[in-house]
């Protein structure tokens, strides 16, 4: 499949888009040979000379994905925002190492903490190999995938696995998004690397793993990542869908027994939810065809969509009656994500 760049944005045209299932699968060796040239290692280093302790070196590293021949690279926001590095004083170097060993400086184009996506640009390098884009719209649990990145600084590491689950709500380090859960081995340094199908096409951006749990890792779906990356390239900022409500998980509801969902606790009078006549006390149980287990799942599903997207919510009113409502999401009105310990979440 071919991708094109229009005005700096990442574009997949209809005539070049072929559904994932129509592709002939390659071996993992073939996938690695195709994708490795498109995955890089990012390193951020700050060196401070202390008169009493000598040199103090602080660094962070992660992975990135080449998205066009002009040097734009897709990665995770958290790779670029380690406070020990960002806040340190001293001589700073932001370096990309390509798969062939070449090195180049990079600058940040834009970043989005909510979806944990960032775009950087490398300078003075030619002959880049952009990734081929797939889609995350038709993924299946059990589908084979390959993860490529730089775990613990070991560049160009390849691991294979399967998709373990879809639509997992991830809430960490100020980010909230729906993720692809995989069992491919990843660790610190894989963040920002490529998750690809057996056609060597990008289907996700590796974002997090559980260091204490083997076979439990997550990736941001490429369709979400590409939308946000396009906005970052065009404007330096990203937007997210917004219902205009606050919600908590439904465990404290007494008049609707054994009901999962997100209980609405407050509604913005000027927001999309109010326009659909939703109010405090309603419980959201489904967004489109996706069950909503709790408030975090609702917020992750909503923030993963673009402003202007139309959705269908299935809700229970305070009496326990079920109804569906059609809502057009609006722009996130600058709401701040709460800490994971908060009982309420904005959506």
TrEMBL record:
SUPFAM superfamilies to which the protein is assigned, alphabetical: PDZ domain-like (SSF50156), Trypsin-like serine proteases (SSF50494)
UniProt keyword Transcription regulation present: no
Signal peptide as annotated in the record: none
Residues annotated as domain PDZ: 241-327
Keywords: Hydrolase, Protease
GO molecular function: serine-type endopeptidase activity
One GO BP: proteolysis
InterPro entries linked to this entry: Chloro_Bact_Ser_Proteases, PDZ, PDZ_sf, Peptidase_S1_PA, Peptidase_S1C
PANTHER family: PEPTIDASE S12, PROTEASE DO-LIKE 8, CHLOROPLASTIC
Protein name according to UniProt: PDZ domain-containing protein
Organism: Mycobacterium noviomagense
Taxon lineage: Bacteria, Bacillati, Actinomycetota, Actinomycetes, Mycobacteriales
């Amino acid at each position: 499949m071919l991708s094109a760049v229009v005005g700096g944005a990442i574009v997949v045209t209809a005539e070049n888009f072929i559904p994932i299932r129509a592709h002939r699968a390659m071996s993992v060796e073939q996938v690695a040979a195709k994708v490795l040239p498109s995955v890089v290692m990012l390193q951020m280093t700050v060196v401070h000379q202390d008169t009493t302790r000598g040199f103090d070196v602080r660094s962070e590293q992660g992975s990135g994905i080449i998205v066009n021949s002009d040097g734009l690279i897709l990665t995770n926001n958290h790779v670029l925002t380690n406070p020990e590095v960002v806040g340190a004083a001293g001589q700073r170097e932001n370096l990309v190492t390509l798969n062939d060993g070449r090195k180049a400086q990079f600058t940040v184009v834009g970043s989005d903490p909510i979806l944990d996506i960032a775009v950087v640009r490398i300078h003075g390098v030619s002959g880049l190999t952009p990734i081929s884009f797939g889609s995350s719209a038709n993924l299946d649990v059990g589908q084979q995938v390959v993860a490529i990145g730089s775990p613990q600084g070991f560049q160009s590491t390849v691991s294979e696995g399967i998709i373990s689950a879809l639509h997992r709500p991830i809430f960490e380090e100020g980010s909230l998004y729906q993720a692809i859960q995989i069992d491919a081995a990843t660790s610190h340094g894989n963040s920002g690397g490529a998750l690809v199908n057996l056609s060597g096409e990008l289907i996700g951006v590796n974002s997090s793993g559980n260091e204490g749990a083997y076979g439990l890792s997550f990736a941001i779906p490429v369709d979400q990542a590409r939308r946000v990356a396009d906005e970052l390239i065009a404007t330096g900022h990203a937007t997210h869908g917004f219902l205009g409500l606050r919600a908590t998980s439904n465990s404290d509801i007494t008049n609707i027994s054994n009901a999962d969902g997100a209980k609405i606790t407050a509604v913005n009078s000027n927001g999309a939810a109010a326009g659909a006549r939703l109010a405090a006390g309603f419980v959201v149980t489904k967004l489109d065809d996706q069950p909503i287990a709790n408030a975090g799942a609702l917020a992750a599903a909503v923030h993963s969509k673009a402003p202007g997207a139309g959705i269908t919510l299935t809700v229970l009113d305070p009496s326990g009656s079920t109804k569906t409502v059609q809502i057009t999401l609006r722009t996130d009105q600058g709401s701040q994500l709460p800490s994971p310990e908060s009982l309420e979440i904005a959506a």
